[in-house]
């Protein structure tokens, strides 16, 4: 019995330490978090946009954050926006976008059109009809090079 209690406390302690150690890694992305967005707001930006839906406690999302931050810093282009949205804190967006798994990314042109790349990266994208619209998206983690190539392809179209 004592052994079970000891292991339960040990697991709880590791969980608390893990949460404490990692809690800032998702939100510390230098100002590109959003709480809400929809197709009308996307069109108002008149920018190339990457929407990344994630959650602060998801390990893949945590792993993806340094990549997004690096792309954000490297591009530093006022016509390119990278937005992170915590879907657990904004569940109403499940009615706006076809989100089934996280992390999930949607790219948009300056005209506010959802974009599917024609390059090799585009082969990793999925297509889904949702709310009478066709959406193209990627589920999982894209590399820095893949994200940059999608932005370049959008700019060259």
Task: Identify the notable features of this structure and list them briefly.
4 helices; 157 residues; Glutaredoxin; alpha/beta; seven-stranded mixed beta sheet; 22% strand; 40% helix
Describe the structure concisely for a colleague.
The chain has four helices and seven strands.
Protein topology:
Layout: H1 2-27, E1 33-34, H2 39-45, E2 48-54, H3 59-75, E3 80-86, E4 104-108, E5 114-115, E6 126-130, E7 133-139, H4 144-156
Parallel strand pairs: 1-3, 2-3
Antiparallel strand pairs: 2-4, 4-5, 4-7, 6-7
Which architecture does the CATH hierarchy give at level 2? 3-Layer(aba) Sandwich
- Which shape, going by the Cα principal axes? globular
Number of individual domains: 1
Number of strands: 7
Give the topology string: H per helix, E per strand.
Answer: HEHEHEEEEEH
The structural class is alpha/beta
What is the CATH topology classification name?
A: Glutaredoxin
CATH superfamily: Glutaredoxin
Q: Kindly state the percentage of residues in helix.
A: 40-55%
Number of helices: 4
Radius of gyration: 18 Å
What is the typical, i.e. mean, pLDDT?
83
């Amino acid at each position: 019995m004592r052994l079970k209690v000891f292991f339960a406390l040990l697991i709880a302690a590791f969980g608390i330490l893990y949460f404490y150690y990692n809690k800032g890694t998702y939100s510390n992305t230098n100002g590109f978090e959003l709480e809400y967005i929809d197709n009308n707001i996307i069109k108002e930006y008149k920018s190339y946009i990457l929407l990344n839906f994630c959650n602060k406690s998801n390990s893949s999302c945590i792993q993806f954050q340094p990549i997004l931050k690096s792309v954000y810093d490297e591009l530093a282009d006022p016509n390119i926006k990278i937005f992170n949205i915590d879907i657990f804190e904004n569940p109403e967006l499940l009615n706006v976008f076809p989100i089934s798994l996280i992390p999930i990314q949607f790219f948009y042109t300056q005209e506010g059109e959802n974009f599917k790349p024609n390059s090799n990266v585009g082969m990793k994208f999925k297509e889904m009809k949702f709310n009478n619209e066709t959406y193209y998206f990627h589920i999982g983690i894209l590399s820095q090079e893949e994200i940059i190539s999608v932005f370049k392809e959008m700019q060259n179209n």
